[in-house]
Design a protein that fits this description.
Length: 310
C-alpha cells in the first residue's frame, strides 16, 4: 500500500485521498492466455511496479499493439489504448506529448515491437520521449500460431522457417544502445519481483526506457522454454555489485552476452539525456492538453503564442 496524490478530473488542485492497492488494478476480463504463458508473470510484475510507485490507475496509461502479449491492457484496470500492430510507440509518444502528467507505458510483443514496429522503435529511441517500453520477448509470433520472429534464434524451426531461420536474431540491447535509448534493462517473466524493480526504475527514468522481458511461449516456442531461460539467466548486480550502467563500454560488452549466460538487470542508463518534450519550444509552455485548455479560455492570447513559436 502506498499513499498517492489523486488529481480530480476537473483539474482544480490536488487532494490526498486514496491508498494505492493492487486490487485497484484488478480487471474483470477473463484471460485468454494459455495456462503457463510468461505473460502472466509480466502482468503481475507490472501491477506490482505501478503499486510500488504509488501510482493510482488514472495516473498511468498502458498502450499496446497486437499479439498475445498486447492483450495485457485488457487484464489491467488502467487507462489503456490497444492500438494496431507495431504502432504502440507512436501512440504512446502522442499521448505523452498531450499529457505530461501521465506515466505512459507501451507493452508490445517482440514481433510487434522489434518487427513490424521496428521503424517506430529506432526513431523513438533516438527521439527519447519520456515513455517506458516493456517488450514481451518470447522469440516467436504467439498469437498467429508460432511463426519465427525477429528475436528467434538463428536456425529456429517454425511454419515460416521450415529449414531453420536464416536471419540473425535482433539483439535489442545492442540495438537500443546504438540508437540512443537512454535506459535499457532486461527482465524475466518467471522472476516478477525482479522484473517489477526493472519496470519501476524504467518508469522513474526520464526518457525512453526499454525493458526487454524474456518470457516462454509454452505453446509454440519449444526451444526457448522456461527451463532454457532458467539455466542461463543471472542477475548482474548479484554477480558484480559495482557494475556501472552509465559506463558505455561496460554496457556494450554486457549487451553481447547471450547463449550460455544471459544478464538480467539495468544494462545501460544515460540519465543526462534530455527528453524530446523538454526540447520542443512550444511544450515549454505546457503539454498539448494544457495548451488546448488555455486555447478554449476566453483570455487566451493565440496571436502572441503563435508569434513566439513561429
Ligand atoms: C498489419 C498486420 N500484420 C499482421 C498482423 C497479424 N499479426 C497479429 S499478431 C502478430 C504477431 C505477434 O507477435 P508478437 O508481437 O511477438 O506477440 P505474441 O503473440 O508473441 O505475444 C501478427 C503477425 C496484424 N494483426 N496486422
Ligand atoms: S500462444 Fe504462447 S504467447 Fe500466446 S498465450 Fe499461448 S503461451 Fe502465451
Ligand atoms: Mg512474440
Amino acid at each position: 500500500m502506498a499513499d498517492t496524490l489523486v488529481r480530480p478530473t476537473t483539474g482544480q488542485g490536488i487532494m490526498m485521498v486514496n491508498k494505492v492497492d493492487i486490487k485497484m488494478y484488478q480487471s474483470p476480463e477473463k484471460s485468454t492466455w494459455c495456462p503457463g504463458c510468461g505473460d502472466f508473470g509480466i502482468l503481475a510484475a507490472l501491477k506490482q511496479a505501478l503499486v510500488g510507485l504509488g501510482l493510482a490507475p488514472h495516473d498511468a496509461l498502458v498502450v499496446s499493439g497486437i499479439g498475445c502479449g498486447s492483450k495485457l491492457p485488457h487484464y489491467l484496470r488502467v487507462n489503456a489504448f490497444n492500438s494496431i500492430h507495431g504502432r504502440a510507440l507512436a501512440v504512446a509518444t502522442g499521448i505523452k506529448l498531450a499529457n505530461h502528467n501521465l506515466k505512459v507505458i507501451a507493452v508490445t510483443g517482440d514481433g510487434d515491437g522489434y518487427g513490424i514496429g521496428g521503424n517506430h522503435l529506432i526513431h523513438t529511441m533516438r527521439r527519447n520521449p519520456d515513455i517506458t517500453h516493456v517488450v514481451e520477448n518470447n522469440q516467436v509470433y504467439g498469437l498467429t500460431k508460432g511463426q519465427y520472429s525477429p528475436t528467434s534464434e538463428h536456425g529456429y524451426l517454425s511454419s515460416t522457417s521450415p529449414d531453420g531461420s536464416i536471419e540473425v536474431a535482433i539483439n535489442p540491447i545492442a540495438l537500443g544502445m546504438a540508437m540512443g535509448a537512454s535506459f535499457i534493462a532486461r527482465g524475466f517473466s518467471s522472476d516478477p519481483k525482479h522484473l517489477a524493480q526493472m519496470i519501476m526504475l524504467a518508469v522513474q527514468h526520464k526518457g525512453y526506457s526499454l525493458v526487454d522481458v524474456l518470457q516462454p511461449c509454452i505453446t509454440y516456442n519449444h526451444v526457448n522454454s522456461n527451463e532454457w531461460y532458467k539455466e542461463r539467466v543471472y542477475k548482474i548486480e548479484a554477480e558484480n555489485p559495482n557494475y556501472d550502467s552509465t559506463d558505455r563500454d561496460a554496457a556494450w560488452q554486457k549487451a553481447q552476452e547471450w547463449g550460455t549466460r544471459i544478464p538480467l538487470g539495468v544494462i545501460y542508463a544515460d540519465p543526462s539525456r534530455p527528453t524530446y518534450e523538454d526540447q520542443v519550444p512550444l511544450l515549454q509552455r505546457g503539454s498539448l492538453l494544457e495548451l488546448s485548455e488555455r486555447a478554449m479560455r476566453s483570455d487566451y492570447d493565440y496571436e502572441s503564442l503563435k508569434a513566439e513559436y513561429m
